[in-house]
Design brief:
The protein is α+β, with helices and mostly antiparallel strands. It is built from four helices and two strands; from the N terminus they run αααββα. Helices cover 31% and strands 15% of the residues.
Amino acid sequence: MEAATLRALLAGEAGALESDPTLAAMLAIIREQSALGDFGLYHGVAEITLGWETFVPGPDASPTLGNAAETTFSPTVTLTTWIREGAAETDVETALDALMAAHPWEIPVIEVAESRLLLRG
């Protein structure tokens, strides 16, 4: 995420999510892929958390941000969505591949964990 996007979001400008090219692409994937963020009556569901990430690129890295052997701090967004229960494995793989391709970093990280959601309605 761009530093300007973080500043805008911290100022309460939620529209900045759609102005940031990476965030807009990833949110579009969540909205378009039926395996993601689908709760029946609601689609494209995602949680967005602002924060900071830190890392030290190794000597062979080609980082999008920072330099080898230097500690880097990056404004970041944690984007959480859910895989629809019963989604076909091929649909899930397609969605995850699309998210990985949209991510600008050399080694994007996507965490997949099983959880139990209690939904009313």
